[in-house]
Amino acid sequence: MDTRLRIFICAAFIFFTSFAAYGQDAVAAGRKMFENRCSGCHGADGNGGELGPAIARRVVNLTDAQIKTTILEGIPTRGMPASSLGDPELPQLISFLRTMRPRRMGFQPYRLKAALAGGKSLEGMVVAESFEDAALKTDDEKLHMLRRADGGKFREVTSEVDWTTYNGNIGGNRFTTLSQITKSNLKHVGPRWIFTMPNASGLEVTPIVSEGVMYVTNANECYALDAGSGRQIWHFQRPRTRGLIGNAAGGMNRGVALAGDKVYMVTDNAHLLALKRADGEVAWEIEMADWHKNYNATSAPIIVGNLAITGTAGGEEGARGFVAAWDKDTGKEMWRFWTVPLPGEPGSETWKGKGIEHGGAVAWFTGVYDASTDTVFWQAGNPGEDYNGDDRLGDDLYSDCILALDAKTGKLKWFYQTTPHDLWDWDTTETPLAIDANWEGKPRKLLVQGNRNGFFYVFDRTDGKLLLAKQFIKEMTWATGIGPDGKPLRVAGQEPSEKGTRVCPSQDGATNWYSPSYNAATGLFYMQTNEKCSVYLKRPDEFAFGRAFLGGAQRVDGNSKPVRVLRALDLQTGAVKWEIPQVGSAGSWGGTLATATGLVFFCEDSGAFVAADAATGKVLWTFEANANWKGSPMVYQFDGREMIGVAAGGSIMAFGLVE
Q1: Residue of 395, 400, 425, 508 with catalytic role
Q2: CB atoms < 10 A from the CB of 429, how many?
Q3: Helix axes 89-97, 64-73, angle to 10 degrees
Q4: Is 436 known to be catalytic?
Q5: pTM for the whole structure
Q6: Quick one: DSSP state of residue 393?
Q7: What CATH number is associated with residue 204?
Q8: Which end of the chain is more exposed for a tag (fewer CB within 10 A), N or C?
Q9: How far apart are CA 298 and CA 552, in angstroms?
């Protein structure tokens, strides 16, 4: 070995071992300081005591500067005094604080050989338990949900019907064939358990359930819960990204995808993670896009074959949209479809001006998949600037498009643009449903969507042929219908203006990303809709990293009362067969779930969870959750019991028959 190289290696070894020793010394000094000054209130491990709250979970989301300010200034309104610590004490104390890990109600995992009924046994680590249940992680990295039986034995629970993708059915339809909950026994349905997520409010997640385990998320957090009791099994968390802009900065995350031994989720800074299902440890991680360029991410991926597929948010900030696929085992990127073409590429001719440089059209919401045609259907967002189209004259492809992509290659098969040259922020991100049904007396593969612009669409999903387009809201000012060429017949004078232009539907849309559903027995499509208008204002804007790129603003029109309406649309005609106007401000974001027993569960605008007759719309059951709904319901069967799960405020609620 070269003498100089040997000297360098020795020097590096001495430096790093000295640095490690210094770091250990700092932690030890900080620990002693914490025990002397802080443990009386917060506990020696930072997990709380009689006189003070747990802080181990909080410090992970604070910078060193914020921790320093809290220590030196205290929090007088909460009884925490200021401290006079200085250098080097403060860095030492912070070093120790960084080593703290939150624990769960004092639980400490332990090893157990669990005797099962029938003479069998399971051996592994008990990672969660109560008087009635236990979660056991065996050495093969699998979780087993157990229930205590007589004689100190256990039994494994059954998980007969799971909900393994965002909409339950990867084709988009939130419909269940489970038949335990019926019209006749609805009065016996009530909450079975509630899990309140720490430091959360306004959860937008749809729970995912597989093999007795439920997975729920908040921004940069994932919890694995016992699906029968709501008991926490593990918790993954990382700090939220400082300086982030966009929807993810508000803390939203809508869920995960599952495949094999992994859980897939996006982070606020547009990374895609694969977590181990057994313990939540990171298996791999990739950067989908650079968050410094105004990207973020909020929604659940889908798994198609060996691919994890998703997009990012950032359209209101001028980020260039895309849908992409990664190998689910390794994280290697397999294909990417850009929703805004580069100058000179096909579709770029539909952008007149410099707007194409920051065109938006992000594919921020979860798409669907049709196995019969091996097609991924993904929805693109609105173009940027949102309310000013002066720099992007033309249709602005592929904004506001339903995209039919080859699942293996990402190649475009067909597309349909719902709102060409959108000036009102009407993303086409509403869930499309892949439905097989008769059309004009013959079997046909359909794709159905209730769109934010106020039209209900039916397509032949094999080739994108438009079969039906029908207005479903009462007041629509921007268009009078859809022409023979498939484009909307626009009304003049509906563009945003400096003085303000009243337009219906509102910026929130005639509907939005909250989930619709369909019941083949009734032939009805169920979705939450809004009778609501906005006043749109236009102004000049210049793109810049680190801020929004809107070109104006909007406000809800105060001259008419907004109303949220659950509507049931005839699949064949688009006609509204029945509707349920709700009480509230049309500001909630909860969706629907249809059942084979003729029910539709939905999140009512004033905060109730409601079930209605799927054929007539008659309200049959209500539970006053008093929730500001931002998630949609799902269903699963656990230990023989049908359970309906939904995010309500900062909690996950599971409903079932109550004896």
Answers
A1: 425
A2: 28
A3: 120
A4: no
A5: 0.87
A6: B
A7: 2.140.10.10
A8: C
A9: 24
